[in-house]
Amino acid sequence: MTTLAESPLPQAEPSEQDIITGLQQTVSASRLALFLQCRLKFWFRYVLKLTKPKTPSLHLGNTVHAVLKGWNKARWLQNPLTLKQAHDAYTAAWADNTEGSVNWDPGEEEEEKTTGWRLVDTYLREHHVPAEVKPDAVEVPVEADLRRHGLPKLIGILDLVQQRKIIDYKTIASTPTPEKVAHSTEIQTSSYAILYRHNTGNTEAGIQLHHLVKLKNPRVVITSLPPISQQQETRLYRQMDAYLDGLQQPHFVPSPGMHCSSCEFFNECRRA
Ligand code: SF4
């Protein structure tokens, strides 16, 4: 008797409604911020899942981030990296194309690669985080169940927690001002504080944004913020509520504005 080999049934593609239902279960700071900035861009990225080639600045930012992560992990293991080891890690991270490759213009890659290393070099040489103090946590994925508030689960990854301070890294092209940083990062900083509180039972000692600025002479700008206030916590919950409401009656409308100049879906938006 012959038997037919069993082949797995083909998986049905999730419908748009399945995807939206999934997006209602959990939310991260970046997803929430994008939804509040432009629902159409959110739809392109998270519902249609359109992908675009990686940009040079994203590649540079990811590479710098990977080296600082490695540097902090080594500190956590109490086996700090030398500058040479950090440079080797930078070279390896730069060559890593697993998350997509960049369409470089002639000569552009070497220039960007040098800029990125100069940022890391400046940051490490200026000792913005005491190398001898063991971090509380490095690149830790965390979540907070907010069901008692009628909200989705909040998820995120904390870059670095040291002496109860939440530290987040960013690469940027121009020098930021403290007030603008406090305002423009509020969804992210409030989310991190809530994640920290839910996972430790403690209040954070503060939040620091470490901006590595891509100038001719690289700069590091540190913005220190106090623990988030009750008002900020409530505001974040209201924003999450608006996110849930918006997904309930999905009108993915465009919100044209200054931010469109950096939107990777500009062409799709013009055709929509
Ligand atoms: S171009 Fe502007 S309005 Fe259009 S999707 Fe992008 S951010 Fe939204």
Structural features, described:
With 272 residues, the chain is of the alpha/beta class. Helices cover 47% and strands 16% of the residues. The chain contains ten helices and six strands. The termini are far apart. The relative contact order is 0.15. Iron/sulfur cluster binds at residues 38, 40-41, 254-256, 259-260, 263, 265-266, 269. Residues 38, 40-41, 254-256, 259-260, 263, 265-266, 269 line the site of iron/sulfur cluster.
- Helix count, DSSP H or I runs of 4 or more residues: 10
Low-confidence stretches: none
Rg from alpha-carbon coordinates = 21 Å
Q: Overall pLDDT, averaged? A: 93
Structural class: alpha/beta
Shape: globular
Number of strands: 6
Helix-strand pattern: HEHHHHHEEEHHEEHH
Percent of residues in helices:
40-55%
How much beta, percentage-wise? 15-25%
The separation of the N and C termini measures: 57 Å
Main β-sheet, in a few words? 6 strands, mixed
Name its key features:
single chain, 272 residues, alpha/beta, 6-stranded mixed β-sheet, 10 helices, 6 strands, 47% helix, globular, binds iron/sulfur cluster
Please write out the topology.
Layout: H1 16-25, E1 26-28, H2 29-37, H3 39-47, H4 56-76, H5 83-95, H6 108-125, E2 137-144, E3 153-162, E4 165-172, H7 178-184, H8 186-200, E5 206-213, E6 219-225, H9 230-248, H10 266-271
Parallel strand pairs: 1-3, 4-5
Antiparallel strand pairs: 2-3, 3-4, 5-6
Helix pairs in contact: 1-9, 2-3, 2-8, 4-5, 4-6, 5-6
